């Protein structure tokens, strides 16, 4: 038998090392290819997501543009400002047509969507044909100026207008379905890429162990053959290259993860914009309804000026009610957009709810029974007006949940809470005001999103999604909390927890725009000299007439510069200034005047308190637009009285 040479074992190790390196390289190459394929599939899914985002956003933009155009036409036919409203209507309507053309180009590769967009184009043309007679009549001053034609077209629940909005909603719904499927594919391929990354990491560990083993074999082989050592060194170099490639692949995955986070942030922004678009449509619908009441009431009253006074007053009261509702909606939007200063006062919850019962009965209707269970005795220190609004909102929500028929229970109780027993409230004494209904209840998903801004389960036009978020903000501002206990098919209990006598007095005294006059404690000086600074000529003229009716001596200015010049000519007892004006703002004007005339009384009038203006208004009376003559009288008297107290 022939003896086996000593170097035959070395040949076996060399072959094994070469085979192992080749196998590792093939596995690594396969893993890299799988990662690349997963990333490519994910990128394609992301591209479909972006396309769906673009289509959805453009559909909402078309809807909002059409709403703005019709709103401008409404102002045009109402003869508010034809030189402005007419061009706005025409420009917005043409812009909507351009946006529909953009939508056609965007969905040109989708046969189903392009068919829907073409139907939108036909409905857009038909809707324009409906609105054109009203616009033409308003422009030519024919008949009622297009008012009747506009109301006939805008009140219709069928025809091109509703069909156009429905078709836009259908396009958006289809794109949301595509978006949902694309997001699922993105998540699937991202998860697959993550798993492959883990496998690559383990492969790196295996390759590291193999490198150690091969190094050991190389040291053993140095004694036997120089060629074996060179092969071992080559293999070590190959392992180092593979490790570097793995590190680069990991870095690429991290970069792609950051890009995915950026895409998700963009998605959240688009969803917010979609919510704003839905809110805009709802507000436009509500304001059109309120304007219809106001315009209709005034028009009927004008037609019956020579008739019975009772009929004229009835129509005027209807118009005032519509204007009051519009002002209430505006205040709710402002309250949501920026926390308004509260007017806390000592309140007995049982007495407040008892005084609210008649209003609840009239608001909720005869089929809703309201039960009050006043078991608490502790007082609270909150804004009573805001608390009444919160309870009224909760009662209306309960009525809607019961489909207009059922029992609403409002109960008060005194509770001593432990730390963290209700949300994040600290331990202490609280008054619990619970509003319960026997309606359909809420699912867990609805309960989690109940306080989200713009979230609503009501139909479009019946809710803006601001009610519960406003209540949540009021409770938090008052140092309390809101809790929801609901079961599907059983009902819902919304509980307000308000601290017992823990609040601070308001630094800005607010006068609600439509409040009833309460002149018993106010001392007005008849014949006081008042300087009115208001940039809107219609508001300025109406306010001057109201002040003259109240036996004051008003002087009107259109801007701050005219007001400063007027003070150089004569002195005034009171300055009534708008807050937001072109050029110098109201607070800037008052700061300028106070340096020279520190004793002058001040009353601010505004429809919105902007960012950065709140501190400038502290210590002064503040009257909200729109306001009644009675509210103006109270605010003027309070401002003059505050100046007299300071002077004393």
From TrEMBL:
Coiled-coil positions: 246-273
Residue ranges annotated for the Histidine kinase domain, each copy included: 282-502
Record field: catalytic activity: ATP + protein L-histidine = ADP + protein N-phospho-L-histidine
Pfam families linked to this entry: HATPase_c, Response_reg
This protein's UniProt keywords: Coiled coil, Membrane, Phosphoprotein, Transmembrane, Transmembrane helix
Parts of the chain that traverse the membrane: 15-36, 199-219
InterPro entries in the record: CheY-like_superfamily, HATPase_C_sf, HATPase_dom, His_kinase_dom, HisK_dim/P_dom, HisK_dim/P_sf, Sig_transdc_His_kin-like_C, Sig_transdc_resp-reg_receiver
Superkingdom in the source lineage: Bacteria
EC number: 2.7.13.3
Residue ranges occupied by any Response regulatory domain in the UniProt entry: 529-640
Positions of modified residues (4-aspartylphosphate): 578
PANTHER family: HISTIDINE KINASE, SENSOR HISTIDINE KINASE
Designated name of the protein: histidine kinase
Species per Swiss-Prot/TrEMBL record: Sphingomonas swuensis
